[in-house]
Amino acid sequence: MTSVEHSTVLIWSPELLRYDFGPGHPLAPVRVALTIQLAEAIGVLASVRLTPVPEPDDTLAAAIHTAEYIAAVRAEQPNLRYGLGTGDVPVFPGMHDAATRIVTASVEAARAVWTGGYRHAVNVAGGLHHAMPNAASGFCVYNDPAAAIRWLLDHGAERVAYVDIDVHHGDGVQAMFYDDPRVLTISLHQDGRTLFPGTGAPTESGGPHARGHAVNVALPPGTDDAGWLRAFHAVVPPLLRAFRPDVLVSQHGCDTHRLDPLAQLNLTLDGQRTAHAAIHRLAHMFANGRWVATGGGGYVLARVVPRSWTHLIAEAAGASIPPETPTPESWRTAARAVEPSPPQTMTDGAEPAWREVADGLDPADPVDRAILATMREVFPYHGLFVPNNVKN
After folding, report:
1. N or C: which end of the chain has fewer CB within 10 A?
2. Residue 71 lies in a domain
3. Which domain holds residue 38?
4. Residues in domain Histone deacetylase (predicted)?
5. What is the Cα–Cα distance from 173 to 171, expressed in whole angstroms?
6. Does residue 162 come out as left (phi exceeding 0), alpha (psi in the -120 to 50 range) or beta?
7. What's the burial of 5, exposed, middle or buried (CB within 10 Å: 0-12/13-18/19+)?
């Protein structure tokens, strides 16, 4: 057990809000600001060690991105060759420093867990999982989860598992470790045939030296709490049990929510809260309790993101919030600048439940088809059996 006052660290500085593509862009920094305000108002921050972000370290991005691409980011000029200056990634002043600061925060979270004596670390401003080695993509300039994984590998971790629950495929992280058997990437997302970035099919399962180490669960539009949680529990725990990571890194995009304007899954806040708790448990079961959690997507700026990520911080701190807890009036006052009628409680009123795959898989069910496709593609590489109780 750690000797520090708290076993969980939250990496946070207001400077992280400088990652700002400007008015009207979906990835608005106010969603992060409102998360920290809600976590403070509801008392969660008393259960974590609040650690400021160190000064941005250029070498951390350089470990995963090409020198040419970093130079293009520094130039702060539109450059479509590198994905800069598009509607998704408009150029803004201070882009390199702002993006580097988020990378530094996620690496600091990894450092806190690997060598700093903490069990868990959270960076809600992170989770920019679409950035590629030589290009920006999908609101992401530098790929902070990949940088955290790279740092862990470079400092002695032999196996790192990455679990991505954003509605969009974690394509950038997958790409950076696609042929590295030391890394297991698992992404549960809306089917890429119906949503950006158009990738994440079950057949994307790893390079020649890492077969089965890229895992993709491509869920149909409309998947709700029960279907999503069924898929998660069917695929993630068995793979983590087989892989036995030294540390678990997770990305908690909350754009799976039924209100999110950029996607078509149908989860509730309560389903997301249940997912955060499941990942926490898996870190203790299979990764010696070492857990690095980041934020990600999420575009319902006041009603969803702050509540989901406050639940995440609380879960990591071992101070889970009863769903019926009222949101503090002081926070609602701040949130009204974004949402005229902020949520009154920390729940959507749902009670998530799901059927285990042991009850049988039905090929006529689109969620079960997605589960089966993933199992058949990757389970054999890990010595796992595909259930044979498939209904005819």
Report:
1. C
2. yes
3. 8-382
4. 25-314
5. 6
6. beta
7. exposed
The dihedral over CA atoms of 301, 305, 310, 315, expressed in degrees to the nearest 10, equals 180
Question: Could you tell me the end-to-end alpha-carbon distance of the chain, in angstroms, rounded to an integer?
Answer: 50
- Give domain status of residue 391, yes or no: no
Residues 6+ apart with CB under 8 A from 385: 379
The rounded distance, in Å, linking the Cα atoms of 49 and 52 is 10
Between β-strands 160-164 and 247-251, what pairing exists: parallel, antiparallel or unpaired? parallel
| 1 falls within a domain | no
Task: Give the closest residue to 207 by CA, choosing from 182, 235, 232.
Answer: 182
Indicate which residues carry an active-site annotation.
130
Q: Is residue 2 a part of any domain in this protein?
A: no
CATH number at residue 134: 3.40.800.20
